[in-house]
Amino acid sequence: MSVTITADQVKKLRDQTGAGMMECKAALVEANGDFEEATTVLRKRGLASAAKKAGRATHQGLVGQWLADDHSAGVLVEVTCETDFVARTPDFQQLVTDVVALITAAGDAATDEWLKNAGGPVQQRVAAAIGKTGENMSVQRFVRYAGSGFVGQYIHMGKIGVQVEFAGVTPQVAARDEFGTLVKEVAMQVAAASPQYATRSAVPADVLEKERAIYRAQTEGQNKPANVIDKIVEGKLGSFYTQFVLPDQIWVRDEKRKMTVLEMLNATNKALGAKVEVSRFARLQVGEGGN
Predict the structure, then answer these.
(1) Closest CA to 276 of 262, 258, 291
(2) CB 246 within 8 A of CB 260
């Protein structure tokens, strides 16, 4: 059965991959409308790079945050509304503040199921805000870190929120200016470059195998020996790491020297006489959490 491909679908795929309109439409037809599969089709044909993380906001709203004074815990939450006008009102900003407080107070009980419970405190608070403003609102998602390391945050214009957890941080290290700078730099890196993984080992095996299959498909017809193809595939995998793995990314504040985030981290550790590592991070951007 044929699937109808809309102009919006074609545009979305083009925006994500940079491929031409006709190539995007053909890929969507071949993939029966499956966006992820269409992206893979384009990549196998050498018409697209690895899919970029969506960065185009489809909703308005704010990212709210809370950070413990001792940096042992932190919360980020994405709250959306229909218009930027409402997002800038005191009523909406109070809603964001209240939702952050509810999540913080709930502690370990704050789960996705708890968040979406129609009779729960968050949804009741949202319903009250909708009733007052007449505009639809939603708490899309939240991130809560607690008790596993030093938590740092960075909020950009209220629209992008980053939370980073560091391991190996002693009170003495936490008090150093160099560490404070490191926290800020790593959080800003996540905000600007949208990495997906904290380490290479965190990349799922099935993701790596899919990437390798795509790179092998790109070498078809080149009549190269198997060992040469293997080297090409691994070389392309290195580019994948550079795009999506935080330590492998080029540090956005030092692109001229091509210093990686790992090199920047190692230099800071040397100055601190410590072994600080990024254990995990989260990036919330208004509009990326779905409908």
Answers:
(1) 262
(2) no
Judge contact between 162 and 285, C-beta under 8 A: no
- Per-residue model confidence as pLDDT tens digits over 4-62: 889 889 888 888 887 888 888 999 999 999 988 888 888 888 777 655 543 333 379 99
Q: For the domain made up of 1-52, give the CATH fold.
A: Helicase, Ruva Protein; domain 3 (1.10.8)
Asked if residues 245 and 197 have their Cβ atoms less than 8 Å apart, the reply is: yes
Domain 60-198+276-285 sits in which CATH superfamily?
Elongation factor Ts, dimerisation domain (3.30.479.20)
What pTM value is reported for the model? 0.80
Kindly list the distances between the CA atom of residue 153 and the CA atoms of 26, 164, 232, 287, in Å, as whole numbers in the listed order: 42, 6, 38, 19
Among 242, 214, 243, which Cα is nearest to 229's?
214
Pairwise CA distance, residues 127 & 143, whole Å: 22
What does the block give as tokens for 35? 């966006």
Distance between CA atoms of 70 and 276, rounded to whole angstroms?
17
Q: Are the C-beta atoms of residues 73 and 165 closer than 8 Å to each other? A: no
